Amino acid sequence: RKEVEQDPGPFNVPEGATVAFNCTYSNSASQSFFWYRQDCRKEPKLLMSVYSSGNEDGRFTAQLNRASQYISLLIRDSKLSDSATYLCVVTSSGGSYIPTFGRGTSLIVHP
Amino acid sequence: EAGVAQSPRYKIIEKRQSVAFWCNPISGHATLYWYQQILGQGPKLLIQFQNNGVVDDSQLPKDRFSAERLKGVDSTLKIQPAKLEDSAVYLCASSPRGSGGTEAFFGQGTRLTVV
């Protein structure tokens, strides 16, 4: 089983739709969780951190479920500009923090 | 604030040749990462430095890949000899300290094509 698993998609949704991605992780000792966004042929950039209490940033909501070992990202009112790959990152600590990326989920928002 | 600088942006080499990539992290960032991203996959961590010490290099193919960060600032990643399957984007990232709870900032990457 891979450490961090994501459905690669693509998720093809119309503008205005709500879409959700999940990411599962295998290491129960994982410490920190993030969602990164990567545009085509660009470097990944932090979208948001994921806190135990959940967090919201505008149209984006991230949640963590430690019991089931997954994190989620919800995008409301999708925009064309949301089209990108969304990468889940899980950081584990065995004395040092080692970040592991999922393979990413591709989102395509169409008119 | 200047971002993470990487060079070159693109490189095409023949198999069995050598290649080196350079990275200058954000000033003051103690942690530096090298990732390999193959098309259609997520970035795979090759090596992580904390200052000039190696934190993790468990996924670095040490028979052909090497990396150093001698003065705890900039870093080089070398491949010798290159194989076709090394074709990928090599991303350098840095963070202020250990990545637990802190954001990693990425450079634009070096796109390597091995022919």
Folded structure, characterized:
The complex is a heterodimer of chains A (111) and B (115). By secondary structure, chain A is an all-beta fold. Chain A is built from no helices and 11 strands. In chain A, the strands form 2 sheets. In chain A, strands 2, 4, 5, 9, 10 and 11 form a 6-stranded mixed β-sheet that branches. A 5-stranded antiparallel β-sheet of chain A has the order 1-3-8-7-6, with no helix packed on it. In chain A, a hairpin with a 6-residue loop joins strand 4 (30-38) and strand 5. The mean pLDDT of chain A is 93. In chain B, the strands form 2 sheets. In chain B, strands 2, 4, 5, 6, 9, 10 and 11 form a 7-stranded mixed β-sheet that branches. In chain B, strands 1-3-8-7 form a 4-stranded antiparallel β-sheet, with no helix packed on it. Chain B has strands at residues 5-7, 10-13, 19-24, 31-37, 44-50, 53-56, 65-68, 75-79, 88-95, 105-106, 110-114. The mean pLDDT of chain B is 93. The N and C termini of chain B lie far apart (37 Å). Chain B is built from no helices and 11 strands. By secondary structure, chain B is mostly beta strands. The radius of gyration of chain B is 13 Å and the shape is globular. The A-B interface holds A 4, 6, 8, 31-32, 34, 42-46, 49, 87, 91, 93, 96-104 and B 33, 35, 40-45, 48, 50, 55-56, 91, 98-101, 103-104, 106-109.
